[in-house]
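Quick start: what a row looks like.
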Amino acid sequence: MTSTTSMTSGTTAAPSPTVTAPDRTTTVPAVPHENTGARTTEAASLIGGARERINALDDRIIGLVQERLAVSAVIQDARITSGGRRVNLSREMEILGRYRDALGKPGTALAMTLLELSRGRV
């Protein structure tokens, strides 16, 4: 029979038991670190630091995407005000090619997402 225990904010779990690895001087948790999946404290620390860096990079990327959307809205507004179309397909093809060349096939999908986000903001 398995029981489920609910943890509330402010409580801490008991430390997981560790076993000594036969060919290492460090101990290995009997279960992976909860947040990282790592099996050593050193790896968990490395992963935690790297994740902080990724979060900071994601914040910057989100800010740049928001800036890109604002610039795209200015371009669309100018194009529409001058009697042109909202979307310039040849320019979009340029962007798709640029991302594909830099990042491969997944770059094309990323560019499509950016273009979709940018359309219709005016």
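That is the whole record. Residues 1-14 have pLDDT under 50 and may be disordered. The radius of gyration is 24 Å.
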